[in-house]
Amino acid sequence: MTKAPRTGERDPARGHGDTDERPLASDIARVLGDPRTWGSGVSKEGQPGDGGTFGETVADNLKLTQGSRVAVIGGGPAGSLFSFFLLKTLALIDTEVTVDIYEPRHFDHCGPAGCNHCGGIVSESLVQILATEGILLPAEVVQRGIDSYVVHMDVGSVRIDTPLHEKRIAAVYRGNGPRTSERITTEGFDRYLLDLAVSNGATVQHKLVTDVKWPEGRPRVVCGDGAEATYDLLVVASGVNSQVMHIIEELGLGYKTPSAVTTFIAEFHMGQRLIQQHLGTSMHVFLLDIPRLKFAALIPKGDFITMCMLGDNIDEQLVNTFLNAPEVRRCFPSATVPTNCCHCFPRINVRKARKPFANRLVLIGDSGVSRLYKDGIGAAYRTSKAAAMTAALHGISEEAFAHQYWPACRAIDRDNMIGRLIFGVCHLIQKLRFSRRAVRRMTFLEQTTPSSRRLMSSVLWDVFTGSAPYREVLVRTLHPAFIGGLAWNLIAGNAPNARVREDKTMVS
Amino acid sequence: MTDVLGKTYRPGEIIVRQGDLGDCMYVIQDGDVEVLKEENGVQTVVDTMHTGDIFGEMAIIEHTVRSSTVRASSPARIMTVDKKTFIRRVQEDPSLALTVLKVMSQRVRKLDLEVATLKQELGRETTSAEPSTGRRIHGD
Question: In this prediction, does ipTM exceed 0.85?
Answer without folding.
Answer: no
